[in-house]
Design brief:
Shape: globular
InterPro entries: WD40/YVTN_repeat-like_dom_sf, WD40_repeat_CS, WD40_repeat_dom_sf, WD40_rpt, WDR59-like
Keywords: Repeat, WD repeat
Distance between the termini: 32 Å
Radius of gyration: 18 Å
Pfam family, one: WD40
Oligomer: single chain
WD repeats: 101-143, 180-222
Helix content: under 10%
Order of helices and strands: EEEEEEEEEEEEEEEEEEEE
Protein name: WDR59
């Protein structure tokens, strides 16, 4: 499939019972991850599975993310229960586990690779901690941040280094740069604009997507209203578009 086109291709993988999916930085490969198996799929030939790795776990994979840098394009990370796992895959079709990162006391809810440092990945959990990990030394977090409520999303700023945002249910964080009461219901999605260091979007159970400027956070810059909860909202790479995933009522 060409990168930007209206072409559609459909393939079913019901036997995988996948709970998470991610596409690599080239747009060619996807990993489908579930409780019992992880499978690599070539999106140019989606009915053919490149390789699979059988898992022995009683927990689902809550999220998976490929490394955003082409130089590390063989790497992807998963979150399962309280642990992060780093995998690589080879041109021979093998998926190899490189390391595990353990630091959370509750289920990991999200992870995000740094867009500026190839070795750094952030993770957040309902245990109220957001950890930063250096994959060169995965035995413990390189830095940790605590709030009074668990986080459901963590996202790095795409323009400014060393800045990330998290979403929470609760009244306030302990030491954030800013606290923004964005929605009355749970926030399911968060994404920074690829063009502005202060602009980001949130999506919520309340059926809205809101656009924010962190330099003036008292009121949202705009709102998209949906008739159903909005599970995810993501900026397109060219910055002027937004893709949403809605949960039907």
């Amino acid at each position: 499939m060409s990168q930007w086109s209206g072409e559609q291709s459909v393939a079913e993988y019901g036997d995988l019972q996948a709970s998470a999916m991610a596409v690599d930085c080239t747009g060619q490969f996807a990993v489908l991850a579930g409780r019992k198996v992880m499978t690599l799929v070539d999106l140019d030939n989606p009915t053919d599975r490149v390789t699979k790795l059988t898992r022995q776990s009683k927990f689902d994979i809550s999220c998976v993310q490929w490394h955003p840098y082409p130089v590390c394009g063989d790497l992807f990370a998963t979150a399962c229960n309280q642990r992060l796992d780093l995998f690589s895959w080879t041109s021979y079709g093998n998926i190899n586990q490189k390391c595990s990162m353990r630091g959370h006391s509750r289920t990991v809810s999200d992870l995000d690779w740094s867009p500026f440092d190839v070795n750094i990945i952030a993770s957040c959990s309902v245990d109220s901690y957001t950890h930063l990990w250096d994959i060169r030394d995965p035995k413990k977090p390189s830095n940790s941040f605590q709030t009074v409520a668990g986080a459901s999303q963590v996202k790095w700023n795409k323009v400014t280094n060393n800045l990330f945002a998290t979403t929470h249910e609760g009244d306030k964080g302990s030491s954030p740069l800013q606290y923004i009461a964005a929605h009355l219901s749970k926030i399911h999605g968060l994404d920074w604009s690829p063009e502005s260091e202060t602009n980001f979007a949130t999506s919520s159970q309340d059926g809205t997507v809101k656009f924010w400027d962190s330099s003036n956070p008292r009121q949202s810059k705009g709102v998209i209203t949906s008739g159903s909860p909005v599970w995810r909202a993501r900026y397109t790479p060219f910055g002027h578009g937004l893709i949403t995933a809605v949960v039907p009522n």
